[in-house]
Amino acid sequence: MKNPRDIILKPVITEKTSDFMAENKYVFEVDKKANKTEVKQAIEEIFGVKVAKVNVIKMPAKPKTYGRYSGYTRSWKKAIITLTADSKTNELYEA
Length: 95
Hints:
Elements: H1 4-7, E1 8-11, H2 15-20, E2 25-30, H3 36-47, E3 51-59, E4 63-66, E5 69-72, E6 76-83
């Protein structure tokens, strides 16, 4: 297995993901090659919580224009982690 810190890259913090926290859901940017099982094991090892469910979404590259220059943003993968009801989340994003 890969190093868990190589799988979980960074948290995604937006208004929508802040609303997810009330439902015990957290959103992270993960490695593009990681699967659900690897993400679940990495979250449980890094943060010491129990994961109930993992949803993985591939975010496509989008076209962007800046003046006369055009190109694409990078594509990336995000994971929505649902924790069990008995998991203690001492602000999962702060760790």
